[in-house]
Amino acid sequence: MTALPDPYDDPAFYDDLIPKRFLAWVVDLAITLILVVLVLALTGFIAIFILPLVWMGVAITYRTLMLDRFGATAGMMLVALEWRRLDGRQPDTALALWHSAIYALSMSFILGQLVSVLLMVMTPYKQGLNDKILGTVIVNRSLVS
After folding, report:
1. Which of 45, 67, 106, 115 could form a disulfide with 96 if both were Cys (CB 3.0 to 4.6 A apart)?
2. Residue 16 DSSP symbol
3. CB neighbours (10 Å) of residue 55?
């Protein structure tokens, strides 16, 4: 695949992305919560004193591993979404790590969250902040695979 289709010429690639992304986010949030509780339990709950760091570390690790290995998180797979570069290629490990780190940072501040949501609503590719910065996009999986 050379490049992803233009959202105006072939909108099926981008149909229903916002509600699908929200559902995927809820699923991934639940998975992250479960993983954080497991980490806390494994440390005898001592890690509760650095909970924000534990949460961020678990979230970045989970998202990076899933995006690198599968091109989607578990939540994204559930709703048939896939993460791609704008040129259509699958992103590499370094890009997955950057994507996860920028996402975690943007989720740490209300302004980052608002900008990300506004970009999803206003841009033709329905990209979040981290997607816009890195030149990546979420698309309906059945159409690109």
Report:
1. 67
2. T
3. 20
Structure tokens at 4: 């992803």
Angle between helices 17-42 and 51-70 (to 10 degrees): 130
Burial class (CB in 10 A: 0-12, 13-18, 19+), 76: buried
Residue 122 CB neighbours (<10 A):
9
15-37 pLDDT, tens digit per residue, is 999 999 999 999 999 999 999 99
Q: What's the rounded Cα separation, in Å, for the pair 11 and 9? A: 6
Helix, strand and coil content of the chain, in percent to the nearest 5, comes to 70, 5, 25
Q: Which residue is it, tokens 């943007």? A: 106
For 98, residues 6+ apart whose C-beta sits below 8 A from its C-beta are 130, 134
Model pLDDT for residues 84-100, shown as the tens digit of each residue: 999 989 999 999 999 99
